[in-house]
Amino acid sequence: MSIPFYQASVPVFLRGLANLSAILDKGAEHAKSTKLDPAVLIEARLFENMYSLPGQIQRASDTAKGFVARVAQIDNPKMEDNEKTFDELQARIAKTVEFLKSVKPEQIDAGQQREVSIFSNSRGEMKFIGTDYLLNFALPNFFFHVTTAYDILRHKGVPLIKKDYLASMK
Predict the structure, then answer these.
(1) Is residue 63 part of a domain?
(2) For residue 133, what are the contacts with CB-CB under 8 A and spacing of at least 6?
(3) Which one of 2, 34, 143, 148 has the fewest CB atoms closer than 10 angstroms to its CB?
């Protein structure tokens, strides 16, 4: 049995972004209820050479919207990467969701065998065919950053559990 390319991508990104939004809500609530300066959570990172919480959210957003834009051959919305508050991070997630929902399934399905080229500072140019791009780069990279955002907040004492990461099991 095969599943449409759209079904294997956009709904997965949307679910991950919804869960990420809920995780951020818990982080903001934790800061408020414990009288912790939210900047402590926002500026946190797991290790000094890793992205802080906003960087993790930005990369998850970039991965989802970049995948959609590339395989559908449409413009990738530019975002400034300047979020410094929970509200700003939530707004970024909302903009990403809005973009993903604006793309028709046929646009994504048409890109399944399309050649896609991306640039990485560490790897240079990488070329993929749509399916390989989704399975071997976009989804693993997206979930790496979602997981790392979860881990940052959990490490800083936000009472998250596995159910928060898996949340919307639809």
Answers:
(1) yes
(2) 67, 70, 71, 116, 118
(3) 2
Mean pLDDT over 139-154 rounds to 98
Distance CA 15, CA 18 (A): 5
pLDDT tens, residue by residue, 84-125: 999 999 999 999 999 999 999 999 999 999 999 998 888 899
Structural domain boundaries enclosing 149: 10-166
Number of structural domains in the chain: 1
- Give the pLDDT band of residue 2 (cuts 50, 70, 90): confident
pTM beyond 0.90: the answer is yes
Determine, yes or no, domain membership for 34.
yes
Looking up residue 97, the CATH number of its domain turns out to be 1.20.120.450
